[in-house]
Amino acid sequence: MDIYQSSIRPILFSALKADPEWLHYQTLQLLSWLNRTRSRPPSQWVQSRLQQAYCLRNVALEQTLWGLKFPNPLGLAAGFDKDGVAARIWGNFGFGFAELGTVTLHPQPGNPRPRLFRLLEDKAALNRMGFNNHGAEALARRLEQGLQVEEGLQVGKLQVESSNQPSNLQRSNLQPSNFQPITIPLGINLGKSKVTPLEEAAADYLGSFRQLKDLGDYFVVNVSSPNTPGLRSLQDAAQLSLILEALQQENNAQKPIFVKIAPDLEWDAIADVIKLAQTYQLAGIIATNTTIRRDMLKTQIIQATGKPVSEEAGGISGAPLRQRSTEVIRFIYQQTQGTLPIIGVGGIFTAEDAWEKITAGASLIQVYTGWIYEGPWMVRRILQGLVHKLEERGLTSISEAVGRED
Length: 406
Ligand SMILES: Cc1cc2nc3c(=O)[nH]c(=O)nc-3n(C[C@H](O)[C@H](O)[C@H](O)COP(=O)(O)O)c2cc1C
Fold this sequence. Notes:
- This protein is an alpha/beta fold.
- The chain has helices spanning about 5-15, 20-35, 40-55, 135-160, 170-175, 200-210, 235-250, 265-280, 320-335, 350-360, 370-375, 380-390, and strands at about 65, 70, 75, 95-105, 115-120, 125, 185-190, 220, 255-260, 285, 300, 305-310, 315-320, 340-345, 365.
- α4 packs parallel to α6 (about 200-210), α8 (about 265-280) packs across α9 and α10 packs across α12.
- The protein has 12 helices and 15 strands.
- It starts with a helix and ends in a 14-residue tail after the last helix.
- The structure holds flavin mononucleotide.
- Flavin mononucleotide (FMN) binds near residues 77, 102, 125, 260 and 318.
């Protein structure tokens, strides 16, 4: 047990009963500060400490997929950093990639609070956030500014390197000598604005994609959140094809585009999505989003509202989702004989959970709820565990483990 699990989590979750959304907001505020000031020494000092604590580099975990270099297969799932306020910080927590969003064309406040609940007994969360976000334009502006900071950093470095005697001003630009910023692939997850009618969904996704297409390394069409009325009906082949057609027409740089699906789809419907993914030459499928099922939960009453969990709207994430999302991954992998890459997400807490997803067919995996419960050391623990599993089996690369169920 680390200090997060033995002290911080019990204090925050059980003793103080800190509101999950408040806690999330405070965390993001801090990370946003680190992100904005990341070229300055105090932030770089913090970042180098984070790297020492949380990062694990191992060549066996590296993969190049869709022309992108992933230092490891474990990413941050969509929903944590919807507005990309900490976009360039996630690599310092050991993640191999991070998915920003869901972002919508129009800024929107999301559903009324409370809308995020911890289900401690189940190691799960229930959320009905409803795509609260500042909109695609704001994300584009933030990411563009971020790129300028990065370029500034490069220029600063060159000036210092090319000058024999740096001025005091240049000296103050010097980074701590042991600090190396970590760059990881950034995905952007797109959703439909609540105000946009379902029939106009394709134009809405396209509007966001136009503004962001040069700023993300990959893109996700999110048609699987249970918290926007009717959104999941966009998983139907007829509706989804309109969206994919529109995006691929606009996708002149051939950025990897994924579709993220719900765990509650029937096999037939998943098979339809697979066909579409092949027709529109998608990079792959993200499986899965949260579930609307409640039958597997131990929790009966949501403490914060006093209502039965069956009466509370929203999607369940975390441990209760693990098995179903793995089944969906396995189904996609088997149907496509491994030809369509899968990003696996749902209920990963341990290296065993991660291995289960990878060997079922996921080339990359993501976490959200597990990170909240297990704390920031979770990433390193999982990566270390994956390295051990590779060694035990005499494998030299994580890519050899994909779909290799024994
Ligand atoms: C509070 C919360 C907000 C989420 N928001 C989004 C979102 O905006 N877009 C999305 O595609 N998935 C969202 N998700 C789903 C996660 O990305 C992930 O698919 C799901 O939680 C399963 O993974 P987990 O069990 O590791 O949490 C959210 C999940 C949680 C818990």
